[in-house]
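Checked the freezer inventory, then went back to the computational side. Two predictions to log before the end of the day. The first one is the construct we discussed on Monday; recording sequence and tokens without edits.
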Amino acid sequence: MAQPLAFIDLEIGKNGQIIDIGCLKADGQQYHGRSVQDLYKFLQGTEFLCGHNIIYHDLKYLRIDSSVQLIDTLFFSPLLFPAKPYHRLVKDYKLDPENSNNPLTDSIKAKELFEDEMSKFDQLDRELQDIFFHLLHDKPGFSGFFSYRRHKPKSSNLKEAIAQAYSGTICSNAKLDHLIFDFPIELAYALALIRVNDVSSILPPWVMKSYPNVQKCFRVLRSTPCLMGCDWCQSKLEPVAALKRWFGYPGFRSFDGEPLQEKAVRAAINNESLLAVFPTGGGKSITFQLPALIAGENERGLTVVISPLQSLMKDQVDNLEKKGITEAVTINGLLDPIERARSIERVYEGGANILYISPESLRNNTIQRLLEGRHIARFVIDEAHCFSAWGQDFRTDYLYIGDFIKKLQETKNLDYSIPVSCFTATAKQRVIDDIRKYFKEKLNLTLALFTSKARRTNLRYKVLACEKSEKYQALRTLLEAEKCPTIIYVSRTRTAEYLAETLCEDGFNAEYYHGKMDSRDRIAHQESFMDGTTDIIVATSAFGMGVDKSDVGLVIHYEISDSLENYIQEAGRAGRDERIVANCYILFDEEDLNKHFVLLNQTKLTKAEINQVWKAIKNLTKKRTTVSNSALEIARKAGWDDEVADIESRIITAIAALEQSGYLLRGNNSPRVFATGILAPNAQDAIEQISASEKFTNEEKEIAGRIIKRLFSAKRISESMGEGGETRVDYLADILGLHRETVIHIINLLREEKILADSKDLNAFIKRSTREEGNIKNIAARFLRLEEFLLKEIQNGATTVHLKELNQKAAAALGEDVNPRHFKTIFNIWAIQGWLEKKRDGNDNNYYSLKLKFEIENIAEKIERRKIIAATIVQFLFEKAQLSTGNNSDEVPVEFSVLEAKEYFKKSNQIFQKEVKAKDIEDTLFYLAKIEAISIEGGFLVLYNRLSIERKELNPHVMYKNEDYVKLEEHYQSKIQQIHIVGEYAQRMINNYNDALQFADDYFQVNYSSFLHKYFPKRANDLNLKITKRKFEQLFGGLSLEQSQVMQDNSSQYIVVAAGPGSGKTRVLVHKLASLLQLEDVKHEQLLMLTFSRAAASEFKSKLYNLIGNAAYYVEIKTFHSYCFDLLGKLGDLEHAESIIETAISKIRSGEISLNRITKSVLVIDEAQDISSREFELIKLLVEMNEEMRVVLVGDDDQNIFEWRGASADCLKWFLKEKKATAYKLLDNYRSKAEIIELANKFVTTIQNRLKGEPIVSKQGPGAIVKITQYHSPELLLPTVNAVIKTQLSGSVAVLTTTNEEASMVASLLQDRGFKSKLIQSNDNFRLQNLLELRFFSDNILASPASTHTIDPDLFEQSVLKLKSTFAGSPNLELVIRIITLFRQEYAKKMYKSDWQSYLVESRLENFYAEESEVIQVATIHKAKGREFDNVFILLNNFQFSNDEKRRLLYVAMTRARNHLQVHYKGDYLQPFVTPEISYSVDQNVYSEPGTLSLILDLKQVWLSFGESSYRQYLIKNLRPGQQLQISEDGSGCDVGKDCVVKFAKAFQEKLKKYLDKGYKPSHAFIRYIVYWINESNKEIRVILPEIKLQKT
């Protein structure tokens, strides 16, 4: 007789209330309604109540009488339909999920399923029916089923029944009693699945989560080898048999007679955790693949292999497939969405038992959910040395693995630890200890150790000592001698490409391979080598991991590896076939080690940089503790150049370091966008609505249908199990094989069609004020103007743009301040939105190559459209902000959706002609966020802001500390030692083969401290040098004790070096720069040096290049003005030079300067005694902006001779007093002999408030000639010149005066006496680029097309020749050629037009005069500062010895001399300083004025507008410097023939009259300079600046 039975299903609303009920009785009666009371009435008399998931879901909302027995079809589905294909109505714990949305319908389906389960139970063997009964008859959810069936078991001995029924399919000695008693339900599910022959059939995720000990049951029954060795264990758990079955090998590989591989496999089969250190080619992969395949077959377990190399994952999967093993998949970034979805599906449905993923994937929600739903047999970690700071490739993302596994075990409710296998090819003892310690502390796992001490016997090693120039010939010789498949390793990508191309040109069959290649090319090149098409592969270390080519007979390291670990691995690519003997060569040049040191420094993440990232995160989280940002945005906020290579991985590493130290918590990489709120009654109705919509394209309709089916499938997850993950956008994208952008777009369309409810998944953070609204509109308006301007520029053909030129043009055209970062922001936005292709062009950071992907008109229309939408969105958000309540903060979060904003726009802009789509709203919101007009998070923006960060340390003053940095510091220290050790190995291999082999063996096998003691007993400190010992001696070997102290100070934040004259200040600075870059972990982009002249900057860069090579080109060494012009994105010019520093300071304070331009780790300042108040303010501001920035100042307050222009030593004193700077004094003088120094020391004591109290010390010894002559004559020109002429001179000579006029007269007198002299002149009144000779040269070299931004070297040389022929008679030609030559030397690699223009703007004429032994140089003392001469004559005609500035001026003059010093002066103030070694005389003679004088006019001394006429310009155009002029008859100017070409200014005429009154008369003149000048009409004209000779009559 049928028993009263009813089937039930409930529909629950979001608020937890019952919104619909369906119920069906076995006799066909139905109830469909919402009343619970009516339901109870309907159920009266029912003895059994059945439903699908009734226990976990429906029962929570009903009060069912305890007498009613419950039957849950969900519980029985995996028991009775465990094999694929599963029951047609069941998907996980849902019924017909894609179509059902009606409780009555679901009740009917529950009845169908129940009847099928009853029928299926009837079909089971009686013994299995009894087993299930004994295990489940008294368990909730199960008992009702057996009561309803009135099942009566025949057998009573359950253990015996299981053993008999499962004989041959489980271990005969499995401990069944324990499982029966403790885990009956879990055992039932395990037994059900064991009956299935299909190994891809698995239990559904809900079972694994609800009954985690199912996994334990499988392990006991089928995966724990018994001691007795039953038939099952012998056939299924015996490693050798399994190896033969899966891979066809008869046995495992032995290492030095020890079967380590087999032992490791047995340990894994025994569920032990282990660490295996096997050499390259040692069968590491099979050692973890075989246990994984066994676990997949026996217990349906998934083995997760974590590897850092995506290409290696694919290779491993491909290699298994070639062997017919298809159980492995990979999920990584190289897969397209469809491939990714297929891999996910195979793992989810049990078709894959081995999953390869990267450490970063562990933060992916899809991966997390995938692993939660599978039985995880084991985690395998490849390249396990990455755990250790002492490993050759420490990675902070590996440190998250333990946390992930622990969290997964907790989520899966496991009461045991998932076993772990770690593998590495090379690991010294310290690394092994670190790995084992990590897993013990994180997961309480003890890793069994399997390590090989054997050496590969079929490899022959040899090291050839080669200079760089010898390497290629040596390489060709080796390749010609051994014609076999060859791998050539290099350390740089450019070298790989160049070498492969060169080899091909020489007839070799070669390809290159490196990590920066396009993935398709990389795969093609690898496959070409693997299949034998290519003989030679030239590769970086990116090649080789997992590459298994058996016939490689030759491995050549063109450049040595950066560690012995990597070298052994890379060399181990040879001779995989043990039957061949392979050769491994190193072409060793010690300088290659220094390249590794440089590369390490470039990639090292310093504590200061981590603090920069931490500061950025603190700023981002001021208002809220959780933020979502992209790595690039964080980099910009940290002040990093966002176009530096690998910047995203560096930011992620910094965040990982902060997370490890507890400062923050990084969330998973997943968009917080959910497709929830299904409004359609069922999937079919939704699909019909989609089909009828005009909003979808045909392709979008197909995708929308797939999404909606998936959403209906996911609907009950949150209802029944409290989960919502399957509606997450990233999960939908992964499962359906779609791009995330596509899913978000379709979801928005579904919301517009009211198929999905709108979801306010966006947050804007708005300050509620009218002023703020105005600011946002102003920002948007400014960017709009810049976009329109940029479009015009591109329209005019500017496909390559120079950022500063573009910026300057925009500022002039728009009449407003513009910043280069605004244009970079626009470039990035346009590129992301698909309007533009952009790339940085060449080595100059200012050049960008731009290519539009749409027509100009199309983009202009998009910009105009966005302008209208942006204005409306701003208005919309501020209206919502004003309505916000319950938040007293000035900044309020406004929740909204794209659809809501779209509807607002539609209502507000009814006259707008074109339809605005959700994508238009998204693009505009993205634009407003990226221009930083509004802070917006969530929604579709998560596609760009992938990093979710929760700040844990809320104290804003807490910084990342030294103790936090210990692990990373250890790693980098280890890397340094590894480079030294591999270099030592190479040297030993050159000298003694066996000794080198023993050295390598000991490195890996002996305790590290013992190894160091054995091989580096007295050189342990050398291993910590960040360059080779030879390079260290080259850089710092010849320094004095005081100079070395400056070099060695790498801890003082502030350093002041008081450097006396001739103390080697320049040398100290250059070597300190080298030390910072090569020994003190400072990256070139984080180093700034400020000087006072372009010549000094060039000199420093040139000398730095001689020390460290090409790295010097990337160091920022600039003048104060040049740096400020750069900050403002302007090309330097004299017009703005005076105010440029103040403007830059103002812009920094207002936040208008890009942070990466002012974020520095080290600031170095030359001539710090000459800093003006403006420059001082800039320095203090940079210190304020960079909390940890180190500052090195070098100067000498005794040489501050520019007080008249605002210079002061206050900056030096401020750092010493306020910042407690460490002070160093350089007192050794390497320039002057003792007598000169003795005079200078005595004299300098008259100066007040000096920083250096101690005297300077001559290192040149005695022997100088010092003469002081005191005159009573009012005129000193003639006696001084006579003294120069009469003195027997050797070496360079300088005459120093206090005025320009005196200098000009001395030079003229010397020339008149037949002596070669050169007047060191300045270009105070004109720009260097306006000098005729240089303008001529510029016009020639810049004549190439505007689209070409570099100067052609051939054109450059041709222009020099043309210059020489055109201006052969110019007195300026020699100096101009020197200016050009020094530019060519400074920009030897590549000459940019902008560099030449900046070079001229920043340079001064006086800086280009070279010291010459045959020419007497004449200059003012000010112009002589920084120079030195063998012989110095000082003329003090009317010198006022009245204040410290004057005293410092004379001190500077004295200390220019090396061997010979003469002072000619009036007065007696030098008498107190005379020593016995000084010749002091008094000259009573009265000297006349010179017979001839020479005057060089400047722009202030000629009538500028006189030459404006076209005719005079015509005359001047045909003139050249050096040509003779006649003095006009009236003496008012200069003529050419009968035409006047120069008219003297009134002031000069008055000056000339004074000379006439003294009896002088102009005798002749010539053209000294021709310069360009812009008149009041903005017209450029040529102006002659003559030199006039005066003759005494």
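The second is the one RB wanted added to the comparison set:
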Amino acid sequence: MNRQKPASLSLTQNQKQAIRELDTNILVSAGAGTGKTRVLVERILHILKNNKAGISELLVLTFTDKAANEIKVRLSERLRDMGLERARRELEQAAIGTFHGFATRLLKEHPVESGVDPDFRVIENERADLLKDEIVTTVLETSFQESDEAFQLVRYLGETAVRSAILKLFATARHEGKMFSAFFKENDLKRNALLERAEKEILRECERLIPKLSGELDETAWSRFVKNQQWDWNTLSDFREWKGSYSSKRKEGWKEWRVLADELAALRMEPLAVPWRAHLENLALRFETAYESQKQEENGLDFDDLQIRAVNLFLDPRPAMRKIRDRYQQRFKFILVDEFQDTNYLQTRFVDLLSSGSNVFVVGDFKQSIYGFRGAEPGIFLARETQSREDSGWIRVPLTENFRSRAALLKPLNEIFRELWDEDQFPFEALSARAEPDPRHEGQVPVEILVTHLDPGEEKAHARIREALAIAGRLKDLHEKEGVPYGDMALLFRGMTMSGIYEYAMKVFDIPYFIVAGRGFYAQPEIRDLANFLTHLEKPLLDIPLAASLRSPLFHVTDSTLFWLSRWAKTGDERNPLAEALKEKRYEKIPEISQEQKKSLAEFLALADELRGLKDRISLAELIDKTLERTGYELSILATPGGARRYANVKKLMAMVREHESFDRMPLARFLVMMERLEVQEVRESEAQISAEGEESVRMMTIHGAKGLEFPVVVVADLGARGGGQESKAVVAHANEGYALRLMNGVTRAAEEPFSYRKLDEKITAREREERKRLFYVACTRAKSRLFLSGVHEIRKNPKNRYGDMLTWMDWVMTIGEKLGIPKASDHDRTPGFVKKNADNFREQMERTLKELVPAEGEPLPEKTGLVTTILKSIDLPVSAYVLFVKDPLAFWRAYQIGWKTTGGDVEGRVPSGTDDEESVALDFPPSPDPRDFGTAMHAFLECFDIRHPEKYLEEEALDRFFKRLGGEAVPKARNILKKFFSTPLFRKLQAARKVEREIDFVLNERRGLIHGKLDILFQDAEGAWHVLDFKTAEGDAATARTSGYDLQIELYALAVHRILGFTVRSGIIYYLENSSAVTLDFSGQGGGLEKTREKITGLQETILDFCNQKMGAGKV
């Protein structure tokens, strides 16, 4: 890993201009690898050398302390070389730092004028996030306890969506520097103006279109709907039913009319959003008030406060305040801003207020703006570029001579991104090479596409395994055949969710690797070990924290000991907690536990009892310190691989705890709740990094983490994964555009998008698509000599023509690769992209590795996989895993026990609950159907449709919402299937049911582990009997149900209903939608407890455990 180091000290003409032009505002548009930081440093040196300003008269703003320190280090070295010792001594006092750092300095100098306590403390981001999360919880709990109207929003959207919406709105408003009252007021004005324009546009379009449809359209009905300003959900249903009667019309004008009708419906929904917006704003204002009050109590300001107050200080029109602003404008003769493409509106305003008019120098690259999720506004950079072209006091200086990548690599890179951005009419500026050639890579193909073809019927997760192995094999060849050091290689990902697969591949090929900030901080084993023990201190009767603590390096209790403890505790009553076996040293009576292990248990109990007695009397930091001291945990983890980093993580946790406690005492219970919520919400705290680790290892890291770095060889991996996050879209928001709320149809319970939501979501989606391209550009331009683009390629039934509309980066790569003739290397068909003399060896290595991955029956996995050989005594799995095991044990092994979660492993092709790729459906309604998957769309439809009035859902409008994106045949196919279902005795039984519950999540605690799943429908018939119903989109019958394991699935559902809800299930029904076949399993003969099913499940769990232990070479349970 290296930072950019120009091959020569000579400057390009444009660099010289950027450095020496001092009499005007300069915007440097610096392409990747063009030496922007060097230019910024050299400009400062030029100013100092020519006595244009002293070091104290410069203001240099960056976004991170790391970047600021790098600038200082470079300046220090150059000042020493130039003999400017005085300036070098003054460097530490120079105003070189972050935006919030300078704002802190400003407020400390003028506390009275800015209205802050002189002794205020800065609340770091991590602490502020925890505080906000805690306050949201309090606001929602208070709203519930007081039964106020605003809590209806939580019932309407769900707690997670409301929590996310409040925090999203708060961040959005702060990026504009506004409090909620002003933000909401401006939002109302913008929305009202938008709706007024839309109303006029619709009326104008009516006048143009309606005459074309004269004689066919019921103009009276249309006019009635248009003039009615007070629609309710029934009116919307009536309108869609009426509109659907014209669905077969194909005459000129009808297509435009249908679009216009959709716009009208969206517009008429707006009044229905008013009460829900009011509830959201009510809760948001309460949150803001509580957050401001808590900060005041702590005498603290967060990063946004610092910048907002600094800006407000300079905006104050009073003469005394104006003098302060004038003083700073005179003090700083030159202002320099690094990474300007990542600024937001507030930060840009701050710079403008500090400027005296023509002394601002900003450097950045629009193409590398990848921090939209943090509020970065790349449009600001483009606006400044426009200013520079209009001769408005700004000069644009482009830097296009690249000092990083060799010429052979830059040529295809330029062609790739010119092609990718051409559809956007973006003026892409090609990079030219200034880097010295690397003899090790001369004559080699600079860009290769590593294609892993998705075979028919293959799960994408398995194809991803093949991709990972192909990458590892290629890197092995580079090292062994071409002499490329592993330390020269980097493997980049958009996210580290699936990095475990690629780690495994590295282990298979014996390649040293180093993960840079892989999993989230709170998910690291050392952090989980401490969290589990602390949880046990607070809640001693919970099984999982106790078991996890005992078997951790804190106490070294074996799985065998845990098994006998659990067996002793739960014999007679499975509900007994594991802690029962530890009471009064009952474990001493268990002969199967060794004396050494009994000693470990005694030490655990002694420490736990002691610390439980102290936890409410000492600080949390002291509690953790005592735990570490008494267990020797720090020495234990230092002795493990990666120990230095794990030790650093523990120290980081301690620093975080002490930082929290510097504001207020942190009770253990409160700390545990916050840690749990942070992990659940996937708040990513980067791991503590140890720079010495992995120097001769392949780096595995995110693209965001690689920004600013460079590597001789780069592999951009997992290009077949879809982009997009898990964020709730119940509310969309943008600092400059306001916010909008999605609704739930009061009749159909389906998601509805009012006009303002639709328009804002379109803008935000467009911005996200633009950022996808920029992120890909950043990834590819990290390479100095060789670039490999790797991913699973799936043939699309309806391929898109525009790159912005394509689903994956691999779609881009394959399309562009065909146009430009970029070499491809496939795991099925080796092309010249691989060195021919190595192709056969590599193929053999791949085949051998795949055999190792799926060994013959009874053969354990090889030890080099790194898997533990401890005998498994219990196993937690979803229902789909049991079904898959019955169907194909080896497929089960690949999907669940090697360590990777499948993205399509559910029996219906849906994403199983709890997997990393799962759509976070709790945040929204309904789950968005996967456009590739008819089954997914059908399940989404069946989850939402109105059982009492199904005929409304056979209309084109309703079916289009779920199936239109799947292609022309999907809608008629769905209509045909649903018509048949609605005419069956089973559906009539559903309609007559006393009660129908849909999409019920459950966790079943069985003897050998937890079983979790989600059943489609549970209903109580007219006679009072309960039935479980599960839909299958394929064809099938009773024989299919047995061979596919679906009968087992239904039995598990019935058992879960009985054990958790206490209902006796009379029957389970599997309904095959494709051929309208219902398979019924009668449970009435089993008795209420479903004892046969329980015995069957216990036996199956033991079979699975034996199978897994055999595969790991660990023997049987």
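For RB: Residues 180-209 form the longest helix (30 residues). The chain has 42 helices and 27 strands. Let me know if you want it refolded.
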